[in-house]
Q: What sequence folds into this?
């Protein structure tokens, strides 16, 4: 129904859970291995550096979320404080990267599930996972949040189990090479880990549905990032303490292989279940986020008006939810998203840079300005370290966004 309204159903705990759900995903189960391969035992330093960089940008999101409590996150901030073209472009990048990310996460979920139940077809199961996430979001925010809370609790418990096991079988000698780690390796590890922190801004996407949003959204951002950082540090210390073979760094099941060395019964199964919970919660919040950004863009005439329709009973933009979930489901059937998925890292840094720039334009004290400037510089620095493929695909996506804006504006002007 076109005249329905979004409902304020999200508490501080729910909002924090949404943030943790978006941050602590398959990345900690997979990306940590890649970063360890680059930084060695100094991967803990890489995580601290990446967390510090994430906190710089998070501080910008905190100030922006206090300035406006509208749905849409980075897109809405750009719409409020930057020229219309840049806002539309940021929204376009956000939608494309997160729809692709949703499909990629769904494939990751399917791969983990097929490792437990051999013979399952990966692409169809991934598409089904997208549709289940869509149904949950379609039914209402309250149900989606409840399921997400359970998934987040499950994966935190699994990661704490990994930490406990890691400390039981801890080998201090594995940290003896920290002092000889190369700076390039540590920074490369930090650049990779940074993308595992990327979901903290998901909370701002649903601002209008958060109770007492002016206070709770900023609190939830920092709480989610703090909890995730502590978890990342503890897990990395435990992983290094356990020790891993070089083959496990790029295996896609780094934590499962690491804990397998302990010989604890069912340990690998428990960690694999944690990976399933992690990917499922990220997929759920991704469909949620894409639908809300599409809703915000439609409300501002940057997307088709049908996406601004809100159902009376559920208070959910159901057309936007369906579009988000079905598009991700169709993308999973392609099977290989390696080339297309490279836009995600480019888009993440681009809309984070835009948010930092928008925060610089706010009236604020010197410390806040410095943090936003540092956040902006860090985003551009990490952009420079992206692969050539990511830059090319990212530039092409920007071109597509510019063309979309041009034709959309012409259509609106004619009407």
A:
């Amino acid at each position: 129904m076109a005249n329905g309204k979004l409902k304020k159903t999200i508490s501080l705990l729910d909002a924090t859970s949404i943030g943790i759900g978006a941050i602590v995903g398959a990345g900690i189960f997979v990306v940590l291995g890649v970063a360890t391969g680059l930084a060695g035992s100094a991967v803990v330093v890489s995580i601290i550096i990446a967390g510090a960089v994430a906190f710089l940008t998070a501080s910008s999101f905190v100030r922006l979320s206090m300035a406006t409590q509208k749905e849409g996150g980075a897109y809405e901030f750009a719409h409020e404080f930057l020229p219309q073209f840049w806002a539309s472009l940021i929204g376009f990048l956000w939608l494309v990267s997160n729809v692709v990310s949703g499909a990629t996460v769904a494939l990751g979920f399917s791969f983990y599930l097929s490792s437990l139940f051999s013979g399952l077809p990966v692409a169809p199961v991934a598409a089904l996972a997208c549709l289940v996430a869509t149904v949950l979001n379609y039914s209402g925010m309250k149900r989606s949040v409840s399921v997400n809370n359970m998934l987040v609790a499950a994966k935190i418990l699994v990661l704490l189990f990994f930490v406990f096991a890691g400390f039981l079988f801890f080998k201090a000698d594995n940290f003896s090479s920290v002092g000889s780690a190369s700076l390039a390796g540590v920074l490369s590890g930090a650049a990779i880990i940074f993308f595992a922190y990327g979901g903290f801004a998901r909370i701002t996407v649903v601002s209008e549905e958060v109770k007492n949003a002016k206070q709770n959204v900023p609190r939830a951002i920092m709480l989610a990032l703090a909890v995730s950082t502590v978890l990342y540090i503890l897990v990395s210390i435990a992983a290094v303490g356990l020790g891993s073979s070089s083959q496990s760094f790029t295996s896609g099941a780094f934590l499962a292989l690491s804990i397998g060395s302990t010989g604890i019964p069912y340990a690998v199964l428990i960690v694999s279940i944690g990976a399933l919970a992690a990917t499922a919660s990220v997929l759920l919040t991704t469909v949620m986020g894409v639908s809300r950004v599409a809703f915000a863009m439609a409300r501002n005439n940057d997307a088709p008006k049908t996406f601004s329709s809100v159902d009376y009973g559920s208070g959910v933009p159901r057309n936007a939810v369906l579009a988000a979930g079905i598009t991700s489901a169709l993308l999973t059937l392609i099977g290989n998203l390696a080339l297309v998925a490279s836009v995600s890292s480019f888009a993440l840094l681009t809309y984070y840079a835009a948010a930092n720039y928008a925060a610089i334009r706010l009236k604020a004290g010197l410390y806040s300005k410095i943090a936003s400037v540092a956040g902006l510089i860090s985003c551009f620095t990490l952009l420079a370290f992206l692969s050539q493929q990511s830059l090319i695909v990212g530039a092409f996506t920007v071109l597509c966004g510019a063309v979309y804006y041009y034709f959309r504006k012409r259509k609106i002007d004619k009407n």
Notes: The CA atoms of residues 315 and 397 lie 32 Å apart. The chain has one domain: 12-414. The chain has a mean pLDDT of 89. DSSP finds 17 helices and no strands in the chain.
